[in-house]
């Protein structure tokens, strides 16, 4: 049995790489209270030209993941080859899902990929403090909501944001 301690982050590699890199920088800098054990650090697809080779490496990352985050940018909903597959895999594995809106939205909006619109997930804007809060809060909330038979999207109320000065 695999020990799951990783965070899997899906994103539009062509347009939103800077946000992913910023998250990894937050995690690496001791001045931030942001810690991810990044599933992408596990391996690199050796033959990046072959879809199945890439998916094999991604499945290994999923096998070690306990949390799934997707950076939702302007074009994320249009990505059907890998991001859609990653979202569908996270749903199938029943991983807690955090949708991170790069446009600042605190809820699900029209940029959300259709493959996760009705899925149990929480949505937050791209901000280190609220993402950290969601990483700590959502896995247990996801489990509670799943046990209660709830589906659909969730968001944090204004008082949570105010507690962080947001």
From TrEMBL:
Residues 8-106 form the Thoeris protein ThsB TIR-like domain. Signal peptide: none annotated. Pfam families: ThsB_TIR (PF08937). It comes from the Bacteria. This is TIR domain-containing protein. It comes from Mesorhizobium salmacidum. The lineage of its organism: Bacteria, Pseudomonadati, Pseudomonadota, Alphaproteobacteria, Hyphomicrobiales.
